[in-house]
Amino acid sequence: MRRHSVVLKLFMVTSILILIVFSLVLFAEGLYFERFYRASKINALERNMDHFANEFNQTANERKRSGLLGAFMNDNDASTSILNNRFERTSLNPYFLELQANGKTIEIRISTDGTTMDEIPQGIGIGDMLVIDGIFMDQEDTIMNPVVIQQKNKDLEKGLIRVKGKITDLMLPERRSYNPLYQDALIHDALRDWMPHAEQDQSRLRNGLPVQVEWSDKWSGVQYAVIIRPLSEGNGGNHYLFVMTSLQPVGEAVGILKQYFVYMAPIIFVLVIVLSLIYSRIVSRPLVKLSRTATRLAKLDFTVQPEIHSKDEFGDLSRNMVALSRNLDAALKELSGVNVKLLEDMEEKRRSEQLRKELIANISHELKTPLAIVKGFAEGLQDGVADDKKERYLALIVNETDRMNALIMDMLELSKFEAKAIQLQPRSLCITDVVQKAADSFSQQLESKHLQYRINIGEVEELFVKADPRRIEQVVMNLLSNAIRHAVENSVITITVQRASNGKVATVIENVGAPIAEEDLSRIWDHFYRAERSRDRKTGGTGLGLAIVKHILELHESEYGVVNTNQGVAFSFTLNESRGKPNE
Predict the structure, then answer these.
(1) Does the N terminus or the C terminus of the chain have fewer Cβ atoms within 10 A?
(2) Which intervals hold domain Histidine kinase (predicted)?
(3) Please, what is the angle between helix 6-57 and helix 62-76, to 10°?
């Protein structure tokens, strides 16, 4: 890095700022963390005390109350006792074992005074067998004060009674600080030290407010937080909940946290240096982007560049360069679009000119022969041919004139389709009726070639489609005319109408005759195209019928086509099915 470079300045400023922040965090941790930790713990304990008081007051069973008290002490790592209205401890014992022995239930009360965790077997649960030596406290021998609790039969001490049975219920100290029974025994000392101050706290307790004090164990020096709050039982008596929890974990946590920061300080210092260097390079990245942008502009690469979102000179320069790049790119794209449009227009003009030339050539070709025939017959009539030939000449002239008129009409209609000047008038119609009507109109042509037709209908006799009746009739007429023209004599033309998939109705017109060459299948829809040039005059039509059919079907969004079959050729098309009745 250069001495006065932006990267070096950013590196120095960033490193100093992060170190300052780190120092402030250390200072705040040493000054406020312990207070925050204590306040959080005591607040959570007070909320749990309110919840315990509600549950405790809702039950009057002493066993359930003992269970609630033991569970509260285990869950909150706190020693707890219930005080009467004279601030004396009640006889409610939080820890107990219940055994089923000799056909009766025996309650083993575990005292918090003088009992250690080593005297209670670890890991015992409901269903386990226990052997307890102790002294019965009642005449019915159902409550025992234990002396030895064991899982194996050892020697019975003199003066004690042994009970062996299966555990049916229990509440033991667990998940708490070291030696919880010792901590529970300290309640007596803490209560004794607080009693001289009880009178001055009574007014606060009578108002339903908790009292919070701190107490220190003289033997271990551990600090405890003591909270006393009223515990109303709903029977008119005043009882209190006395809770004591150790604050030693707070101090230990703060001390360990301070040591942790001492060990982590060198690592954090190294991370600050590395991250500051990375950050400074990231911040200086706009210069690199501007350089790359300028390089692309020099190479006439005007694609949009990522904009630098900053309010300094770098940001202004970046936005101006990006705006320049976008404007130049837009201008080039507009120019390219104009060039493409110009090329397309030129190509369209060339294609139109080519079509015009082909059309003129086709028209000339189609009209030349009939005009020559008409001229020949007319000259024959001028020369005074025999009277027996005049009628034939006149009939031929009329026939050729009709052919030329049909060609011109087809050309006019085709030009309307190509100019998109045809508007369909679709309605619901019965396609089977259209096919039947078209087939009946060709009866004379069918008889002249000794042909027959057969209409195959699917499961439904009447199928309705949504289409323009006049145009669809024109399609069927053209396809039938084409099929009759190219069918062999004494054959059958098959017309199949059936429901297809996706709401379509398919119509297939198949004749028996010579197949169409594979290379001609895709070209027969072009105007003036015939698969066999030998059929132009005698067996061929105008050459525009299939082109008109193609335009009509495309306006109906139909799927149409032609295929060679085993016997001849089949033309097919589809129309959208209509569920309604035909419109009149």
Answers:
(1) C
(2) 362-579
(3) 170
Which CATH fold would you assign to the domain 364-416? Helix Hairpins (1.10.287)
CA-to-CA separations, 257 to 108, 250, 266, 279, 443, in angstroms, rounded: 43, 11, 15, 29, 107
The CATH fold assigned to 1-95+174-283 is Beta-Lactamase (3.30.450)
- Residue 561's pLDDT band, with cuts at 50, 70 and 90, is very high
Cβ neighbors of 371 (< 8 A, separation 6 or more) are 404
Label residues 413-444 b or e (16+ Cβ within 10 Å = b).
Answer: bbeebeeeeeeeebbbbbbbebbbebbeebee
Note the CATH number of domain 423-576: 3.30.565.10
Q: pTM for this one? A: 0.42
Q: Return the ∠ at Cα 372 (arms to 367 and 375), rounded to 5°.
A: 120
**Cα maximum dimension of the chain:** 164
* Range among 113-117, 148-152, 484-488 with highest mean pLDDT value: 484-488
Query: What span, in angstroms and rounded, lies between the C-alpha atoms of 481 and 493?
Result: 11
SS3 429: strand
Domain ranges in the chain are: 1-95+174-283, 101-172, 364-416, 423-576
